[in-house]
Amino acid sequence: MNKIQRLFQIVQQLKSKRLITAKQLAAYLEVSPRTIYRDVQLLLDSGIPVKGETGSGYWLEGGFEFPPTMYTEQELHALVTGLRATMQSKDDILAKAALNVLKKIYYDAPQSLRKQLDKSPMRVPVAFNHPGLMKKIDILHKSVVDQKRVDFDYVDEKGQVMVGQIRPLELNYWGDKWSLTGFCHLHENFQIFRIERMTRIRTGAVFKHEPGKQLMDYYETLFAKGKQKGEVFQQ
Fold it and tell me: Per-residue confidence at 113, pLDDT binned at 50, 70, 90?
């Protein structure tokens, strides 16, 4: 964690608690109390109203807010819903990252929006309980992040096996099924594959994004045809 990230985390902790000591901050950020003292001074020099009292701890002066991120209420609800789903992942690193992002959004939101987020009704129960499926999702998720080609065998509805080779672009959860969207090298178009039907998944060489083969190109093609993603998945 670099200094900028650490300063941001200190402010987040101060915003989420009424009072916190340098020792508690040091333990949370895995640094020395002396580092916390220096960081707090930097925050003060930057105009952030950190208050402190010997023997008690630090707090933020009431009313302090970061410059608001330009999200509407509905956009915030959409972000929170997706993050809550990701937090259910058995990938601890991914789940913790989602929690950290959710905290940042929550504590950066204006007080009026924060109250709305507390009441956000959307929860997405995600099926991560199948060990074999979870292993496939982990491999495919990493291949999307690392931009690595994926080779695999695919069993269609008739039980016939075909070979697949794609640029993986997006994982989707459809309520009871998972799918992978990618640009198929064999057919030179976008394809959606149901992950439970994919076998012998192997990652290949790193690919560079090219015009016409990126995720936004897929979305443009999809909606130009007047189709929703779910309709394509059902085909």
Answer: low
| pLDDT for 233 beyond 50 | no
Amino acid symbol at 188: E
Beta bridge partner(s), residue 170: 181
51, amino acid identity: K
46/87: higher pLDDT: 46
Q: What is the dihedral of CA 159, 178, 216, 142, to 10 degrees?
A: -100
Look at residue 141 and tell me whether its pLDDT is greater than 90. Answer: no
Alpha helices, DSSP H, located in 17-169: 22-29, 33-45, 73-86, 92-108, 111-118, 131-146
Structural domains of the chain, ranges and CATH numbers in brackets: 3-60 (1.10.10.10), 73-118 (no CATH), 131-234 (2.30.30.100)
* Helices 3-16 + 92-108 axis angle, to 10: 60
